[in-house]
Design goal:
This protein has 8 helices and 9 strands. The chain is an alpha/beta fold. It has one domain: Spore Coat Polysaccharide Biosynthesis Protein SpsA, Chain A, CATH 3.90.550.10. Strands 5, 6, 7, 8 and 9 form a 5-stranded mixed beta sheet that branches. A hairpin with a 2-residue loop joins strand 1 and strand 2. The longest helix has 14 residues. It is globular, with a radius of gyration of 16 Å. The relative contact order is 0.16.
C-alpha cells in the first residue's frame, strides 16, 4: 500500500519529510527550494517553484530546479530520502565540482539514483526536450541529455564501494541511506533506523 497522499507532509520522527530534506540543504549552506509542491507543509519554509510540466513526475521537478537556479551546480533530492546523510551529500558536491561532469549520480547496487544527484545547468535543454516529447523517465532523459551535450560526460559512481574507502563519515550503510519512504512500512523502518532500534 502506498502513502495515498503527497509525501512531503508525511511525518517521520515528528517532522514532515519536506522539513527534514530542507534542513539537510541548509546544513550544506545551500539555498533550499521546492519544486512541484501540491500543498503547504507546516515548518517547511522555503521558496516553492511551480512546475512548467505538472503531473509529469520527478523529471518536471528537475527541469524546474535547473531552470530557476543561479548556481552552476544543482543538488537534486527527492523528498522521500530522509536517511541521506549530509556528509555524503557534501562529498558528492565536492566530487561534482572537481570532475566538472554534467551529471554526478550515485549508484547503489546496480541502480543509479537520479533523484539524489548533482546536475549542471547545461542539462536543462535536454530535460525540457524529453518532457516535451513525452519521455518522463529521469535516468533515460539524463543519459540522452548528457550525450547530446558532448562534453563533461556523466559521473555515475558506486556509492558502496566509495563508502568502503571512508571517503565520508557515515552512521549507517549506504544502501539504507537510499531507502525510499514510499509506504507506511518504509516509514516505520526509517523511524526504527533513525532511533537505532532493532528491526526484523
Amino acid at each position: 500500500m502506498r502513502m495515498g497522499r503527497d509525501k512531503a507532509g508525511i511525518a517521520l520522527a515528528g517532522r514532515p519529510l519536506l522539513e527534514i530534506m530542507l534542513n539537510k540543504l541548509r546544513m550544506l549552506g545551500l539555498r533550499a527550494r521546492v519544486a512541484g509542491l501540491r500543498a503547504s507543509v507546516a515548518n517547511a519554509d522555503a521558496e516553492v517553484l511551480r512546475d512548467a510540466h505538472p503531473d509529469c513526475g520527478p523529471l518536471s521537478g528537475m527541469e524546474t530546479a535547473l531552470g530557476n537556479s543561479e548556481a552552476a551546480l544543482v543538488l537534486m533530492l527527492g523528498v522521500d530520502l530522509p536517511l541521506l546523510e549530509t556528509e555524503f551529500l557534501f562529498w558528492m558536491l565536492e566530487r561534482a565540482a572537481t570532475t566538472r561532469a554534467i551529471a554526478t549520480i550515485p549508484r547503489v547496487g546496480s541502480e543509479p539514483q537520479p533523484l539524489c544527484a548533482v546536475y549542471r545547468r547545461e542539462l536543462l535543454a535536454g530535460v525540457t526536450e524529453a518532457l516535451s516529447s513525452g519521455d518522463y523517465k529521469a535516468m533515460v532523459a539524463v543519459e540522452r541529455a548528457v550525450a547530446g551535450i558532448g562534453s563533461g560526460g556523466m559521473d555515475c559512481f558506486d556509492t558502496e564501494r566509495v563508502a568502503a574507502t571512508s571517503a565520508w563519515r557515515s552512521t549507517r550503510p549506504a544502501h539504507w541511506q537510499f531507502m525510499n519512504c514510499n509506504t507506511p512500512e518504509d516509514l516505520a523502518l526509517a523511524a526504527a533506523l533513525l532511533a537505532g532500534k532493532p528491526f526484523s
